[in-house]
Specification:
- Strand 4, helix 7 (233-242) and strand 5 (245-247) form a beta-alpha-beta unit.
- This protein folds into two domains: 2-132, no CATH class; 138-377, Metallo-dependent phosphatases (Purple Acid Phosphatase, chain A, domain 2), CATH 3.60.21.10.
- It is α/β, with parallel strands linked by helices and 378 residues long.
- The protein contains eight helices and twelve strands.
Length: 378
């Protein structure tokens, strides 16, 4: 507990310190062309934006919290790029001064243009990210099963819908329409269907109706992601049941005598799954030495090392492919495969990691896309 408190204090201190840095840089930039600035009004407005990111912890009504959360989710992206671009500008100016390419003290006019470039770059990135997050891309893969199938099976993979996040319900209709246009045999939802709290959804009944309208020859299946837990886990499970989404909790089913599909309980849930724990792979009793291809949904690709050559295909999400540059560099360093297709060797399972169909935190996509994946299993 003491470690958690210490980590929270460190994170809040970093957040406060970096925001002070950004606030001072903007104030100095504004001061280069505005003669009088009301420092109290400016500080108050800036503080409101910084606190909007912490709306989930504020004791306010759900309606007000939704409005503040909307502002806070966008501010998160603005904050990240303001910080990165101001730091980059200061580094360039400092290097310029050190090699005497820029006079010291730095001319006011240069500071103005440096600040202007930072502001314009930040606005450009956020606007692009917001527009890109409203788009759904389509990706396809061809996978050869270890035992060739008499007829191909079309699997549509989506993950990380994050229902309850900003724009999630609006994008759900696009996602369902995109899935249905592909005419899949099976739809697999590889976790993070929710955003941690079912009551964050504005219109659960409409979301249920949309999910029920997914057309797949052999149905829609899902596994749990780390954001699918917490105090409303039972309500989430009931929502999926009403949506005709079959949740596989360390269980397997045989699809039309042609394929074995397994869904894993997430290994690192936020808030827990109401006592439900992830089983050892051996305890799931997936049929061994079967001629049927075995497909596993496991939300977090961190777990792919647990599977041997008895598995044909692993479907994961979770990473969002970093969602926003430069976070994609971080996820690429963290995981053996953070996005796309991977196979360790010819006898190992194929792995497909999707960047997800929705966004978490910020409704922005920069350097990644919301996507629907079509897999043809031969």
């Amino acid at each position: 507990m003491a470690r958690i408190i210490f980590a929270v204090i460190i994170m809040l201190s970093l957040y406060a310190g970096t925001n002070y840095y950004i606030a001072m840089k903007i104030y100095q930039w504004l001061g280069s062309f505005i003669t009088r600035i009301n420092i109290k009004a400016y500080a108050g407005i800036y503080i409101l934006f910084t606190l909007s990111m912490l709306s989930a912890f504020l004791p306010i009504s759900s309606g007000v919290k939704r409005i503040i959360s909307y502002a806070g989710s966008h501010w998160m992206g603005i904050y990240i790029y303001l910080l990165l671009f101001f730091l980059a500008a200061d580094l360039v100016v400092s290097l310029g001064c050190s090699v005497k390419m820029i006079p010291n003290p730095v001319p006011q006019r240069l500071r103005f243009y440096a600040g202007l470039i930072v502001i314009l770059l930040t606005v450009g990135m956020v606007v692009y990210g917001r527009c890109n997050a409203n788009q759904i891309k389509f990706v396809s893969y061809d996978i050869q099963a270890k035992t060739p199938l008499p007829a191909d099976i079309k699997i549509v993979l989506v993950s990380d819908l994050h229902l309850g996040a900003v724009n999630s319900e609006k994008n759900l209709s696009k996602i369902v329409r995109g899935i249905n246009n592909l005419e899949p045999d099976i739809v697999c939802i590889a976790g993070d269907i929710f955003n941690g709290n079912i009551y964050a959804l504005r219109n659960p009944s409409e979301a249920i109706a949309l999910l029920k309208s997914v057309t797949a020859a052999y149905g829609v299946y899902a596994c749990l992601g780390n954001h699918d837990g917490g105090k409303t886990f039972r309500e989430m499970a009931r929502f999926l049941e009403q949506s005709d989404v079959k949740l596989l909790n360390d269980e397997h089913v045989t699809i039309d005598g042609r394929l074995i599909l397994t869904g894993r309980v997430d290994s690192r849930p936020i808030g827990g799954f109401d006592g439900l724990k992830r089983k050892n792979l051996a305890d799931i009793n997936i049929p061994a030495n079967t001629d049927l291809p075995v497909v596993v949904m496991d939300h977090n690709p961190f777990n792919i090392g647990q599977y041997g050559n008895g598995i044909d295909l692993i479907l994961s999400g979770h990473t969002h492919r970093g969602q926003m540059f430069p976070a994609n560099l971080v996820t690429k360093a963290m995981y053996v495969i953070h996005y796309g297709r991977y196979q360790k060797d010819a006898n190992s399972p194929h792995v497909i990691v999707t960047s997800g169909a929705g966004t978490w935190g910020m409704p922005l996509r920069i350097g990644s896309n919301n996507e629907i994946v079509m897999i043809t299993l031969h």
